[in-house]
Design a protein that fits this description.
Length: 349
């Protein structure tokens, strides 16, 4: 069991000083007390690894895990845990101790903005890894049909190979954009967005439009993640970053609030989040303003593949706010009551 590094310990110290319990709400994006998903994962992974849950009944195992989560994050450990949804309302997350890769969510639907803390234990019931993902991310991991996508839209390319649906970012985002941002020096693709480091949507369009016509290796029809990674690498390079990074969080290029979609068919899977949603996004506030899902920029690349090479044929760039003005929405389906989500074999790697 390690101690959090100095960059992460400030969250723990602030929570400890606040006297808040896990049931006291914290505004998403609060710069002092809200722990963004990547930092939450780093804290819990470092703080829980090596803890033994051996010999405990399932209920006791869950309770001990939650007690240790409180300890790691700086919260007082309650005498008993209330049956709230989620179990940790203050930071908006649930915990699951996973010995297998079959995640079971009982008696409730996945929530797009809720975080799911997945605690991996070995055969000996020792914690080996902790991953934190949102419900929106979990929805995209299911490949069995047990979990149906809640939102989908249709992408029909037009004659022009590049389209900018709106010329300006949302009114909330515009004050934080800057034409001259040396991305190679200031940040990585997975850094949190900040004022004067966000390129305007028109500049994103100019840089990403150069990718139309580019070809890259196809990861195969059963390897959508590999295919997407190939495109994400090209996007990071086109934007001007020093290297490629992808932490699996939404949006793909968090530093630019940019979600990247690769389409070889007309149906766009959106999971549990409507792009025009005004719900807060899990990123720190920018100058006191909370970024929303509708402020995210969506780069939809249409492509053709011959099985070995993917060729990018079209780019359509829009804000989440204007997304459905270009992409018609399908009628969503209701999620099943009991959800069983098989996690990918390399999920905890």
């Amino acid at each position: 069991m390690g101690n959090p590094n100095p960059e992460l310990s400030r969250y723990v110290d602030a929570i400890r000083r606040s006297g808040l319990s896990i049931y006291d709400p914290i505004e998403i994006g609060n710069p002092a007390l809200w722990i963004p998903t990547p930092e939450l994962e780093a804290l819990l992974d470092e703080g829980l690894r090596g803890i033994s849950l051996a010999g405990l009944p399932i209920r006791s195992r869950s309770k001990v895990a939650k007690q240790n989560v409180c300890r790691v994050l700086g919260y007082p450990i309650p005498a008993s845990f209330e049956k709230t949804q989620p179990r940790f309302p203050g930071q908006l997350f649930d915990t699951y101790v996973q010995k297998s890769n079959n995640l079971q969510v009982w008696n409730e639907e996945l929530s797009a903005t809720r975080r799911y803390v997945l605690i991996r234990v070995s055969r000996e019931d020792v914690v080996t890894r902790v991953k934190v993902v949102t419900g929106a991310t979990l929805a995209l991991l299911d490949t069995t049909g047990t979990l149906t996508q809640k939102y989908q839209a249709r992408c029909i390319p037009k004659d022009q190979s590049t389209e900018l649906v709106v010329n300006l970012d949302t009114a909330l985002l515009q004050p934080f954009t800057s034409l001259a941002v040396p991305l190679k020096r200031v940040a990585t693709p997975v850094s949190h967005p900040s004022a004067d480091q966000l390129l305007p949507i028109a500049t994103l369009f100019e840089r990403l439009g150069r990718l139309v016509g580019v070809r890259f290796k196809d990861g195969g029809y059963d390897q959508e993640r590999n295919r997407g990674a190939g495109l994400h690498r090209l996007v990071c390079e086109a934007l001007g970053y020093a290297g490629y990074q992808d932490d699996g969080q939404f949006p793909d290029v968090q530093h630019q609030l940019l979600e990247v979609k690769l389409q070889t068919s007309p149906t766009i899977d959106l999971g549990l989040v409507r792009p025009n949603s005004t719900e807060p996004l899990d990123v720190p506030q920018i100058q006191g303003q909370q970024i929303r899902h509708c402020d995210v920029r969506y780069a939809v690349f249409y492509a053709q593949t011959d099985g070995s090479q993917v060729t990018l044929t079209h780019l359509i760039l829009t804000t989440g706010e204007a997304f459905f003005t270009r992409f018609p929405q399908f009628q969503g389906k209701v999620l099943n009551r009991k959800l069983q989500i098989p996690l990918p074999a390399n999920f905890f790697d």
